[in-house]
Amino acid sequence: MKYTFTLAALLPAVTVLAAPTPPGIPTATAARTALAALTVSTNADDGLYERDLFPTWITIEGTCNTREYVLKRDGTSVTVGTDCYPTSGTWTSPYDGGKWTAPSDVDIDHMVPLKNAWISGANKWTTAKRQQFANDVTRPQLWAVTDNVNQSKSDKSPDSWKPPLASFYCVYARSWIQVKSYWALSITTAEKSALTTMLNTC
Q: Which InterPro entries match (predicted)?
């Protein structure tokens, strides 16, 4: 009996590891259920929003503040100094696929922007609760992304801004919904429609 072996069969399987992502991203099914339960209303912009009303960055772990913590969490081969600031590493921005080796090229984006939170319910919170929201590393609220992409997003919701990579729409929508759901923030009709469309890519 003759046996034929291909080179591929003799080589070990190679696993391609995805870039690290924040914790707490729900399944598409769970996200759809959560989206249906969110309060739909008009955003209430009272004109009083100021970024300082959401204190950042606080000490999260050891000497690491929130930004440093996320850079360490979401990068690959990251080394840090005694002050926790990265001295080397690589960061892949899930929004646009950009790869960076300088921490200064990376922003920490709030999935649900602080102003959007303010106009969808956070204006009624205490400063202490807003600080918790702005430094939430337990849910998919903080992302290491390309700085100019973060600036392009600014305080926009999914009906007026989407990540450059359409392949990320599914994760983006699931993460946005999870944050709004946990923090009991409202969404607009347009926002819900955009999130539904993005979930349909899952």
A: GmrSD_C (IPR011089)
**pTM here?**
0.90
- Kind plus residue range of the DSSP H or E element containing 148: helix 147-153
SS3 label, residue 59: strand
Q: Where are the domains of the chain?
A: 19-199
With 0-12 / 13-18 / 19 or more C-beta atoms within 10 angstroms meaning exposed / middle / buried, residue 159 is middle
Tell me the one-letter amino acid at 126: T
Distance CA 119, CA 116 (A): 5
71: which residues sit within 8 A by CB, 6+ positions away? 78, 86, 89, 91, 103, 106, 108, 144
Q: Could you tell me the mean pLDDT of each successive run of 10 residues in the chain, 202 residues long?
A: 37 43 96 98 96 97 95 96 94 97 96 98 98 98 97 98 98 98 98 98 97
